[in-house]
């Protein structure tokens, strides 16, 4: 993977630029626009668009708007807060093929909820959590796709394992038979400085490529979940296979991005 498209900017400084989607047509338009941007980023990087999965992120979005997104074609949605996600899952049982990916930090005492309903969990960052999830999944008779979260920015405000600890962590995961380890996930720096953001994605890709060489049998580590509304094109240029896009699909949230990103003002 080469990183020749060095000029790609971030859009992190443009909170409020996304109008709220209020109809199925709005969602269809937004999804098509994002997929066109994914296609263009793939073309710049010499990748096939089929190598990148779009994960719409519906955190803070109400049921009515989620149902519109579903009508526009969304079948897997990402949620940060497990209790919010579980409530939405319960409320939309009639949409049998709608699945949920929990992408935010998970406290061990809420693992039972993830085990009950989630199709995917992208924030695995401790053996204690892995053990609890595995036990709960065994009780439910289910298995779960998981991503190991890595702190590639070095920020204290971010969850995830330090890169140097990921290798040992992955070696310990095969003992948890209900967890299917798919790859790595990261949150980049929230910055308007594109090269600082890009460096986080490069670090995750290089770590994944290194870990693949000694991965346990049956663990492919194919996936890299990285990139959001403001930086997913850079992430794709650096090898993302999953991009987590919320505001560019659903519209700007009621609170500014700094609410979710401590230290935003000092990071650019």
What's the topology here?
Elements (H helix, E strand, L loop, with lengths): L23 H22 L7 E4 L6 H9 L4 E4 L2 H10 L7 E4 L8 H7 L2 E5 L2 H14 L3 E6 L13 H10 L6 E7 L8 H19 L10 E3 L6 H6 L4 E4 L1 H4 L13 H4 L1
Parallel strand pairs: 1-8, 2-3, 3-4, 4-5, 5-6, 6-7
Helix pairs in contact: 4-5
Supply the key terms.
10 helices, disordered C terminus, alpha/beta, disordered N terminus, 268 residues, 8 strands
3D structure, described in words:
The N terminus and C terminus are likely disordered. Helix 4 packs across helix 5. Strand 6, helix 7 and strand 7 form a beta-alpha-beta unit. The strands form two sheets. The protein has a six-stranded parallel β-sheet with strand order 2-3-4-5-6-7. The protein is 39% helix and 14% strand. The protein has ten helices and eight strands. With 268 residues, the protein is α/β, with parallel strands linked by helices.
Overall geometric form: globular
Gap between N and C termini, in Å?
27 Å
Strand order of the largest sheet: 2-3-4-5-6-7
By helix and strand content, what is the structural category? alpha/beta
In sequence order, what are the helices and strands, one letter per element? HEHEHEHEHEHEHEHEHH
Largest beta-sheet characterization: 6 strands, parallel
Oligomer: single chain
Proportion of strand residues: 5-15%
Mean pLDDT: 91
Unreliable runs = 1-5, 258-268
